[in-house]
Amino acid sequence: MGKKTVLFLRSSPAYHCWPLFKQLRLSHPDPDTRWICVLQPSVEQEFREMSQGMETEIWTYTERIFTYAGLKKIFGDKLRSRKIDVAYVPLNHPQGKGYFPIIRFLTWSGVDDVVVHTQDDHFEQITWTRFILHRFLD
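The chain above was modelled as a monomer; its predicted structure follows.
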């Protein structure tokens, strides 16, 4: 079995993301796990310190907010050329309000599993269609 690749997209405040990232590190203890982390340049150094000892590739996103077009422009070819086993997206809003572009981009990119994480520590594996329906039906 090859290396597992995990994508972590810092899409909510640090007080939510950092504990989640630490928790995910414990749930993926295999030293062969490859991590790709998408984050803003303002937290890059802090994240590098947190991820010491892990095979981690950091991709910086310089726009103020994550948009489908922005993600596709900066990371589209890069992400589609890799096999991402699972992507974790921390949600800042309980119903995922504002996360449509991120979920759409990840599913377009061919990520095997997209998992959202709410601030009440709930994980949910999701598809683009399910994400949209879930948000409209709630």
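The longest helix spans residues 14-27.
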